[in-house]
């Protein structure tokens, strides 16, 4: 029968001190309790570990062998316990995250970085996905978590508000409206407005287009032929404005800037998790909540 680890740890202290009084004081127990522990340990092993007399304590050959072999065994056991505890806390394993392209400039990288730094044993695999595909993938277990702009429809998941952002427009730095700290919705509607393809994110597309539904004259809304226009020539030339959340202000291409729209309702970013959470999912939720508070993503 394997000895209990507490008695084994006590024995190792005694093997270093070779004195019951000093060893008991170092451990923080009474000397009779230490003596009782060592006798039980010897009984479990079926052999003496110490040679005792009134003036000294010495290790037997079995005691010396145990004193040499026990520390690495206990260290391995400690690692096993730590591994089990970290897995139970959601700090170990593989975390699969899908995020919408619009959250990839700032929000998703910040959360992924915090998860990796707070849980070094956690392998995080994050990839951009089409927004409508994220919630179903979380619901059926292909993803552990999702980050979406807008509260996307779908069952079998729980959604947590991660970030609330002001709505504004991207525009050329030389554009006449760029000199305003805030832009009136009616002023922005006087220019052609470029929206992303609705199929990429129907929720946000409809929310943005609704801002200009009642303007007079009616706003000119159009979608570029390319879903991701790397040149953004129409914006750079000052011809077009592009409604966008304030995250766009932190990753502006050269020649462009961002200004908020006065009175516009905010856009939201949500963390999507399975309805039945595991320790891993709870860990993601805890880290995301702390990050949102720290970076002031959610107004008080």
Q: Which structural class do the helices and strands define? A: alpha/beta
Please mark out the parts with pLDDT under 50 across 5 or more consecutive residues, or reply none. none
Strand element count? 12
Alpha plus pi helix count: 10
Keywords: DNA-binding, Transcription, Transcription regulation
Pfam families: HTH_1, LysR_substrate
Protein name: LysR family transcriptional regulator
Family: Belongs to the LysR transcriptional regulatory family.
Concise summary:
The chain contains ten helices and twelve strands.
Topology:
Layout: H1 5-17, H2 20-27, H3 31-45, E1 50-52, E2 57-59, H4 61-88, E3 93-100, H5 107-118, E4 122-129, H6 131-139, E5 145-149, E6 157-165, E7 167-172, H7 185-188, E8 193-194, H8 202-210, E9 221-222, H9 233-236, E10 242-245, E11 256-260, E12 267-274, H10 279-294
Parallel strand pairs: 3-4, 3-5, 8-9
Antiparallel strand pairs: 1-2, 5-12, 6-12, 7-10, 7-11
Helix pairs in contact: 1-2, 1-3, 1-4, 2-3, 5-10
Task: Describe what this molecule looks like in 3D.
With 300 residues, this protein is of the alpha/beta class. It folds into three domains: 5-88, Winged helix-like DNA-binding domain superfamily/Winged helix DNA-binding domain (Arc Repressor Mutant, subunit A, Orthogonal Bundle); 94-161 and 269-287, Periplasmic binding protein-like II (D-Maltodextrin-Binding Protein, domain 2); 167-265, 3-Layer(aba) Sandwich (D-Maltodextrin-Binding Protein, domain 2), CATH 3.40.190. Helix content is 39%, strand content 21%. It contains ten helices and twelve strands. The chain has helices spanning 5-17, 20-27, 31-45, 61-88, 107-118, 131-139, 185-188, 202-210, 233-236, 279-294; strands at 50-52, 57-59, 93-100, 122-129, 145-149, 157-165, 167-172, 193-194, 221-222, 242-245, 256-260, 267-274. The protein has a five-stranded mixed beta sheet with strand order 4-3-5-12-6, with helices on both faces. A three-stranded antiparallel beta sheet has the order 10-7-11, with no helix packed on it. Strands 1-2 form a two-stranded antiparallel ribbon. Strand 8 (193-194), helix 8 and strand 9 (221-222) form a beta-alpha-beta unit. Helix 1 crosses helix 3. The chain is rod-shaped and about 105 Å long. The protein starts with a helix and ends in a 6-residue tail after the last helix. It comes from Nonomuraea composti. Residues 3-60 form the HTH lysR-type domain. It holds the Pfam family LysR_substrate. Belongs to the LysR transcriptional regulatory family.
